């Protein structure tokens, strides 16, 4: 049985007050809170077990290396990758997508080659491809969403042409909560020899992910959204694609041998992990994945489906509130505006006075905001520890904001 109160007790910050009110943390899409086991693991790593990894022969270095490298298998299991060698550590999805841009795409794409994107993409899944547009003449092809915020995968497939080399799509929109059929898109891409890149930042925290079932070439996740530390992340990179990638950064750990006249690279994935890594951050991410899997990703998904349905029904009762995106099967993310002159930043400030933490702005989705003809929205994004009671507090705070601007 899913015991949300027991889960909440594992997150110390959820017991605090903000502005004299119990904290209702609904900014999980930006970054999730951390359970005590992650906090304890970080403290233990720094206070009792810290050393650099890979290079040392002493006890602490071996211990740190064992714990750090052990996370690779945890990520592989979490994503159902075929091998832990297909997991590349990084600081998060932004670095992962830039790695794909520099290490795989830049050496292969030429002027006129195409990359397909959707208007829902986060800037992290846009800007690296703009680099290729600016520097190499690559063409970005954009696919629009439906009026309800859903994405028809056939529209993405239909956009694939003879010059299409990559399709880069989000698994779940960080603004609309739309879940994308990335398996259908990846299958069509593979049939055409097109590389598929999936931004899994939002989706991976809300339910099970199976990269073998999806059939993608790259799948990126970020630790701080997965109840782990900031500065941690990982990417699944299909072995065939890794073999085609050049190193992104040069330095220690990613080399086999360096001489005055030559350098040879370490085997993948190490050749994509230059320098001293985020040792403790990665260990913390591994503990966070252990925590999530101990609860059960299916159980988390079921809890959040209930929250989504309840929140949608309560928000639908506010006829002066405009919710952006109501795609079937959407995740627990709600972006909204109020009728009238109330700006998203003003709404967020009023909600904060009631202890409700939401995000306000463009959410790093400029093309989507242009598509929606909005300059900003408020976003309430839910997590495994949120409750129906917190939805009710959100509604009360929104009613207050409406009264103040009426």
From TrEMBL:
Its cofactor is pyridoxal 5'-phosphate. Pfam families: Aminotran_5. One of its GO terms (molecular function) is pyridoxal phosphate binding. Its EC number is 2.8.1.7. Coiled coil: none annotated. Belongs to the class-V pyridoxal-phosphate-dependent aminotransferase family. Csd subfamily. This is Cysteine desulfurase.
């Amino acid at each position: 049985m899913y015991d949300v109160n027991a889960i909440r007790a594992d997150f110390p910050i959820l017991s605090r007050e903000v502005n004299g009110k119990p904290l209702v943390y609904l900014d999980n899409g930006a970054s999730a809170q951390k359970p005590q086991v992650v906090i304890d693991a970080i403290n233990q790593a720094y206070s009792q077990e810290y050393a650099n990894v890979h290079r040392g022969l002493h006890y602490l270095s071996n211990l740190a290396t064992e714990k750090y490298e052990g996370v690779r298998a945890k990520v592989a299991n979490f994503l159902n990758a075929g091998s832990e060698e297909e997991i590349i550590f990084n600081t998060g999805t932004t670095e992962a997508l830039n790695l794909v841009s520099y290490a795989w795409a830049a050496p292969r794409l030429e002027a006129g080659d195409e990359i397909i994107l959707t208007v829902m993409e986060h800037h992290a899944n846009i800007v690296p491809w703009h680099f290729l547009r600016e520097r190499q003449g690559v063409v970005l092809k954009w696919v629009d969403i439906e009026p309800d915020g859903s994405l028809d995968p056939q529209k993405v497939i239909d956009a694939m042409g003879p010059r299409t080399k990559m399709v880069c799509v989000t698994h779940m929109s960080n603004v609309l909560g739309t879940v994308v059929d990335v398996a259908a898109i990846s299958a069509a891409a593979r049939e055409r020899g097109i590389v598929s890149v999936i931004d899994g930042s939002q989706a991976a925290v809300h339910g099970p992910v199976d990269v073998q079932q999806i059939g993608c070439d790259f799948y990126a996740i970020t630790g701080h959204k997965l109840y782990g530390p900031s500065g941690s992340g990982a990417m699944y990179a299909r072995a065939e694609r890794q073999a085609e990638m050049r190193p992104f950064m040069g330095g220690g750990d990613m080399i086999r041998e360096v001489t005055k006249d030559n350098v040879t690279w370490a085997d993948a994935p190490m050749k994509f992990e230059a320098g001293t890594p985020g040792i403790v951050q990665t260990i913390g991410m591994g503990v966070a994945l252990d925590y999530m899997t101990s609860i059960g990703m299916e159980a988390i998904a079921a809890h959040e489906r209930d929250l989504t349905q309840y929140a949608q029904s309560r928000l639908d009762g506010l006829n002066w509130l405009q919710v952006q995106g109501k795609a079937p099967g959407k995740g627990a993310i709600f972006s909204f505006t109020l009728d009238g002159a109330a700006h998203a930043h003003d709404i967020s400030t009023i909600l904060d006075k009631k202890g409700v933490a939401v995000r306000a702005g463009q959410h790093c989705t400029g093309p989507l905001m242009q598509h929606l003809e909005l300059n900003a929205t408020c976003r309430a994004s839910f997590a495994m520890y949120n409750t129906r009671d917190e939805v009710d507090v959100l509604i009360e705070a929104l009613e207050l904001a409406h009264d103040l601007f009426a």
